[in-house]
Amino acid sequence: MNTLARQLKDGSQKVSIAEKAYQELKRRIMENELPAGDQLMEGEVAEMLNISRTPAREAMVKLEAEGLVEVRPRHGMKVKAISISDMQEIYAVLTGLESTAAWQAAQGSRNPKDIQKLRDCVLQMDEALSNEDLKGWADADKAFHRQLVAMSRNTRLIELVDRYIDQSHRVRMLTLRLRPMPTQSNSDHAEVVAAIEEGDADKARRIHRIHREKAGELLVDILETHGLTQL
Question: Rounded to an integer, what distance in angstroms lies between the CA atom of residue 227 and that of residue 129?
């Protein structure tokens, strides 16, 4: 019995079959189990997840709306590739949105529990690097960015950042071991947390903007150096 079938058998009925199908398909795409260029007919998706065609179709349409796949009549679902120019655009958007989120987080109530969550993420990133666990570092880094954006209390901004983080996730994971150890990234994150805790909104925005710009430039450089034009 596959993962989704077990969820449907054991899980709560509050989450629809289509939603669970969407979550499972998205997980496989994000983890590169379904790599760019993979094409599946609606019936193949339904068979793979052990569900009927209707929820399979609904899941595919939702993934298309998020920019992860292309759905065409009689051709099914194709996992979209991401180019260097795509990543440049994505990072430009993330730089602007997340910098604004850092600014808003520093201007807000600055709940100590929220700030501690950021600090915990930085600690996890430090521990992961000390163990040379790049996957663990990437997970903690992703959690940091989601927590930072959540602290903006800006629902539209949160939705947009979630979408673009998801679109870039596959490329980040595929290039993770091609990059230098991200020790400076950890320092940048700690400085952002300190600025937020101090309520210095302009400083938080400036530090995070520079951090995101450097991260984007590094990723594009890796892609170009290794000739990874489509992922």
Answer: 27
Q: What is the pTM of this model?
A: 0.82
String of DSSP letters for 207-228: HHHHHHHHHHHHHHHHHHHTT-
Helix (H) or strand (E) holding 185: helix 183-198
pLDDT digits (tens, 9 = 90+) for 181-190: 999 999 999 9
CATH 3.40.50.720 fits 84-225, yes or no: no
Q: Can you give the residue ranges of every domain in the chain?
A: 3-79, 84-225
| Architecture label for domain 3-79 | Orthogonal Bundle (1.10)
3-state secondary structure 29-83: HHCCCCCCCCEECHHHHHHHHCCCHHHHHHHHHHHHHCCCEEEECCCEEEECCCE
